[in-house]
Amino acid sequence: MNCSQFSILLPPVLAPPRFSRLSLLHSHSSISFSTNCILKTSRRLFLRAKASSPTTMANEEVTGGSLKQQLAKLFEESLRITVPEELDVDPAIAPCQNPKFGDYQCNNAMGLWSKVKGKGTQFKGPQPIGQAIMKNLPASEMVDSCSIAGPGFVNVVLSRQWIAKSIQKMLVDGIETWAPKLPVKRAVVDFSSPNIAKEMHVGHLRSTIIGDTLARMLEYSNVEVLRRNHVGDWGTQFGMLIEYLFEKFPSGEVASDQAIGDLETFYKASKQRFDSDPAFKERAQRAVVSLQAGDEKYRKAWAHICEISRRGYEKVYQRLGVHLEEKGESFYNPYIPGALELLSKKGLIEESEGARVIFIEGKNIPLIVVKKDGGYNYASTDLAALWYRLNEEKAEWIIYVTDVGQREHFEMFFTAAKRAGWLPAEDNKYPKTSHVGFGLVLGEDGKRFRTRSTETVKLVDLLDEAKSKCKAALIERGKAKDWTEEELEKTAEAVGYGAVKYADLKNNRTTNYTFSFDQMLNDKGNTAVYLLYAHARICSIIRKSGKDIEELKRTGTLDLVHPDERTLGLHLLQFAEVVEEACTNLLPNVLCEYLYNLSEDFTRFYTNCQVVGSAEETSRLLLCEATAVVMRKCFHLLGITPVYKI
């Protein structure tokens, strides 16, 4: 239908209370135009030719990209006809804040009026521009009706038939067809990154699961992701570790894992000797020189210590279902001299108080790249790693996931890279770098989360406790009688580990959050337990119907007659743009919010619309299945294992 034929909106659809949503980003599928006059002229001629046929999309289905991107394609056609001389205008599409006005709106009219006012335009204000945009919108099966509100906002009501058709197509073709389209092909996500010889503690939880979720969302969006574990496996601390190892084993044989014992305890003991014994400290410093010079004995001891740490980390990664490729500080060490030489040739590196530094405008202290003693540091390693990722790995987007306390370091080294010409000066151009900062994990006392003995909480112990508490809750509910021990274990793992992840990811990552088992394991409210149970209930509805859902996908028809069916269907269709927003802003909580609101929409639908035994059973079972499919994909992107019965 052509929008100009309609001005009546559908009745408003009631929706459950929601958390406030972040505003959605403008579409990334917008076209960039060359400043070349010939290209501009050719474009104008093409658009004027199209203007004589305003319904070029009448019989074409707009496909590809998110729902918002598809609407943007339609409005792009209209804008080129409405204001053919304004070639740099991208469609400003956003969801309607109030559903009584429509589903989406185009907000270009006011901005266009400020551009064309005083240029001899035919328009007398923003509302006539909005009217023209609506009139010139190509006919599409997506759109049911349009209307104008205020100073030219074009409100769009989507066709419920088209929504239903799109969902049914996803059920047949798979949810991968809903993946958003991002403007990058390869990205590095640098996350987790513990220090060798130290246990992973609760502070590593946020980097590990935030980084994993960002990597999963990018991978779903068809971006090749290089998952990098930039472990701290090089530096002066290895001198004291190796020297202490040799002191305990004077024969020179590298000790077994059991002989070394707990590596964290071993590290603390060596640090105590280093701080209290000047002779030991001197030997440790010489050991660093021997290690860096490639002495086989020292290299072997170093490799052994690293391997013990890796095995400890792997226990955590297995529990969390996280996969990384290790490229630690030692990997980039050979590239440091070359990277610094490139920066020196650009005139960026200067001598200052015996050190070599890069001065950054607006910062009180410089970025030190070579210490007074000639040694390298984090900045020199990070610059070498950035050069490698840009030039060897050909990454277009490099994402660093660390605590917010490192923000200034990243700002300074990103600025240095821009000054060197390694990165474009503009933040919205590729290749680009992003620092994903996150806040602290707090205890219920409001202080940094620690054990009663003031030790940092070991991550493996925390995860095991979450699983144990979940298993106890399941047994208390009588599941031990009905389930096998394997079912009990797997469900406790899925819910326990999922609860820990979701409690973190649902918060805006830049804020601190309070770690509370009682809150995260609650089966009511915005928790993983509630959402996993909601998914299990949907699966139960489908099972109890006795119908073959795969057969229904092939032979059944989805219809969204009831207002709550339509609300749920529209929410499902917005999945791609939510993933796009979460990726673009690097905010996993946007996806968590979407998932929770989806479960609320489903609850309202199920409360008001009988499924099994109703005349609309087939259609409503398909809507149940579509909801379960999208929920499972959300769980996957958040690194949470779904449960199918509870």
TrEMBL record:
GO CC annotations on file: cytoplasm
- Give the UniProt record's GO annotations in the biological process aspect: arginyl-tRNA aminoacylation; post-embryonic development; reproductive structure development
| Annotated GO MF terms | arginine-tRNA ligase activity; ATP binding
UniProt entry keywords in alphabetical sequence? Acetylation, Aminoacyl-tRNA synthetase, ATP-binding, Ligase, Nucleotide-binding, Protein biosynthesis
Q: Which reaction does it catalyse?
A: tRNA(Arg) + L-arginine + ATP = L-arginyl-tRNA(Arg) + AMP + diphosphate
The answer on whether this UniProt entry bears the keyword Metal-binding reads: no
The UniProt entry, under Pfam families, shows: Arg_tRNA_synt_N, DALR_1, tRNA-synt_1d
EC number(s) for this protein? 6.1.1.19
> Domain named DALR anticodon binding: which ranges?
531-646
**Which superkingdom?**
Eukaryota
Q: Which CDD domains match?
A: Anticodon_Ia_Arg, ArgRS_core
**Domain named Arginyl tRNA synthetase N-terminal: residues:** 69-158
> Which InterPro entries does this one have?
aa-tRNA-synth_I_CS, Arg-tRNA-ligase, Arg-tRNA-synth_N, Arg-tRNA-synth_N_sf, ArgRS_core, DALR_anticod-bd, Rossmann-like_a/b/a_fold, tRNAsynth_Ia_anticodon-bd
Its annotated function is as follows:
Forms part of a macromolecular complex that catalyzes the attachment of specific amino acids to cognate tRNAs during protein synthesis.
What family, per the record? Belongs to the class-I aminoacyl-tRNA synthetase family.
Q: Under what name is this protein listed?
A: arginine--tRNA ligase
